[in-house]
Design brief:
The protein has a single domain, classed as TolB, C-terminal domain (Neuraminidase, 6 Propeller), CATH 2.120.10. With 375 residues, the protein is mainly β. Strands 8, 9, 10, 11 and 12 form a 5-stranded antiparallel sheet that branches. A 4-stranded antiparallel sheet has the order 3-29-28-27, with no helix packed on it. The chain contains 1 helix and 29 strands.
Length: 375
């Protein structure tokens, strides 16, 4: 693995990213002690705090960041009206929902919509007045199985909604075809079909701006030791099977299943990483506010291991791409959320590029959003 030659060590103080919500003493204390390591030519600052269980993000057509707080049952907006790099306030969009997670916007003929993937359904809200007035949620996809891996991720491309649903178990043969798969729907929820299967838990999915193909990071099964199966980045193609639960890594048969399965017919990963690091979010970056040397990258947020004798993850990794979007190599980009004791000091979740070209990173352990820009 490559290493960056120069790093800043950042002390994030509690007064950064001031929010109008009441202070949270625990989060304040943790944010005050956090030290991150990253290259000297970028800057990391605290954009928002007191957003407990911060998960997935997206930007609307006004450049405003929307954030899901899945286990809090909330979706909020985080405007930065004065453009000082700190959210001005936390504006509630939805409350008391069933694990809202994936977020996406779409402009349709009859209006502008916010789509939200909850544990057992996908809803959409029509905006009736800028910036934050929306109608009540309309259910467009229901009957999504609950339990097990309970977060749902959505992306929209070419007027189609792509939905990622994780497995119900560590390793098993699923009865419901929506499980461990990515399905696809029309934007009104009709025409549902399975797009790709054998994906145990692809929380992070994103379309490549180079090829238009769907890329996704996948969390492998547990209880095969520290080093297997390696975490995967897949190029997800229609009609393909990516191995789980029968095969892992480059088509190794999972011996927990005493059944015949032709692993040679499954799609091997496009790239692999250390096992159990739990990749959750990824963002393509062609160019933006970062220095030019970061052009043509994919940034991946690793949530961190929970079942490894030596903890791993808790960081952001950069994949270097060529001008056609092919992977060249990878390197650590931001680290420091894992203490020497092995305890977490934060857990990265999702990473998104803003219309201005900065990167934003959520942290569900600290309830925070970071802004990453050029120094």
């Amino acid at each position: 693995m490559k290493s960056n030659p120069h790093f800043y060590i950042l002390q994030i103080f509690a007064f950064l990213g001031f929010i109008i919500y009441p202070q949270n003493g625990l989060a304040e204390n943790k944010l005050g002690s956090l030290k991150l390591q990253f290259p000297t030519d970028i800057k990391v600052s605290l954009f928002a705090k007191n957003v407990s269980r911060a998960r997935h993000m997206t930007f609307d057509d006004q450049g405003i960041l929307f954030l899901s707080q899945a286990k809090e049952g909330k979706v909020v907006a985080l405007p930065d009206k004065d453009k000082n790099g700190e959210a001005d306030q936390i504006i509630s969009i939805l409350n008391d929902r069933d694990i809202p997670h994936g977020l996406a916007f779409a402009q349709l003929e009859d209006g502008y919509y916010l789509y939200i993937a909850e544990e057992t359904q996908v809803v959409r809200l029509k905006r009736i007045q800028k910036p934050f007035t929306y109608e009540k949620p309309e259910i467009i996809v229901n009957g999504i199985p609950g339990g097990g891996h309970f977060t749902r991720t959505i992306k929209i491309k070419n007027n189609m909604l792509y939905l990622s649903v994780g497995s119900s178990c560590n390793v098993c043969i699923e009865k419901n075809k929506l499980r461990a798969a990515i399905s696809r729907f029309n934007l009104n929820g009709s025409g549902g079909e399975i797009f790709a299967e054998g994906l145990r838990n692809s929380v992070g999915i994103e379309f490549s701006p180079y090829t238009g193909e769907l890329w996704g990071v996948n969390n492998g099964r547990d209880r095969l030791g520290d080093d297997h199966p390696e975490e995967e980045l897949n190029i997800i193609k229609q009609g393909k099977h990516y191995g789980w639960p029968y095969c892992y890594e480059s088509r190794f048969f999972d011996k927990d299943f005493g059944k015949s399965f032709d692993c040679s017919k499954t799609e091997p990963p496009a790239y692999t990483f250390t096992a159990h690091m739990a990749p959750l979010g990824l963002a393509f970056y062609q160019k933006g506010s970062l220095p030019e040397r970061y052009n043509h990258s994919v940034f991946i947020a690793f949530h961190g291991s929970w079942n490894r004798s030596v903890p791993a993850g808790y960081k952001v990794v950069r994949l270097q791409l060529d001008a056609k979007g092919n992977i060249i190599s990878h390197e650590d980009f931001i680290t420091g959320w894992l203490k020497k004791s092995g305890a977490p000091d934060g857990r990265p979740v999702d990473i998104e590029q803003s219309p201005e070209g900065d990167l934003y990173l959520s942290d569900d352990y600290l309830g925070a959003v970071y802004k990453i820009s050029g120094n």
